[in-house]
Amino acid sequence: MNETTAIQQPATAASYRMLHTMLRVLDLEKSLDFYVNKLGMKLLRRTDYPSGEFTLAFVGYGDEKDHAVIELTHNWGQKEPYTIGSGYGHIAIGVPDIYGLCERLQAEGVKIPRPPGPMKHGGSVIAFLEDPDGYKIELIERK
């Protein structure tokens, strides 16, 4: 099969929708500060599960019925940062003013390992941030 060959999806796939991406975080308050206060997401819901000793916090730019969101999972007993592994890539967020946003985020202490600029092979202006746990967030400028 080559790149241009379309993969046939079941007729029901048209009703499927991406719901969320889950990230395990060491310090939930630092992660909420990053996603809510720095990236402007809303805390949609937060639930403690005492019997399982974990908390789930869902953040995003819109209601879960219409938008994909991020689930932040905080396991209460975790004392060491999680290893991200080589399989994780990044979460991408479209923003209207990538240069202004990165300037503000850098002033607030956010790590920006790849400052905003055009992609090497033309096209979009992108940047990469790191959240408090080291997960990569790609910003893509969308006017």
Describe the structure.
The chain is α/β, with parallel strands linked by helices and 143 residues long. It folds into two domains: 18-79, 2,3-Dihydroxybiphenyl 1,2-Dioxygenase, domain 1; 90-143, 2,3-Dihydroxybiphenyl 1,2-Dioxygenase, domain 1, CATH 3.10.180.10. It is 15% helix and 36% strand. The chain has helices at 28-38, 98-107; strands at residues 20-24, 42-49, 54-60, 69-75, 91-95, 111-118, 125-130, 136-141. The strands form two sheets. Strands 1-4-3-2 form a four-stranded mixed sheet, with helices on one face. The longest helix has 11 residues, at 28-38.
Number of domains: 2
The strand line-up of the biggest sheet is 1-4-3-2
CATH 4th-level superfamily of the largest domain: 2,3-Dihydroxybiphenyl 1,2-Dioxygenase, domain 1
CATH class of the largest domain: Alpha Beta
The helix tally amounts to 2
Which labels suit this protein?
single chain; 143 residues; alpha/beta; 2,3-Dihydroxybiphenyl 1,2-Dioxygenase, domain 1; 2 domains; four-stranded mixed beta sheet; 2 helices; 15% helix; globular
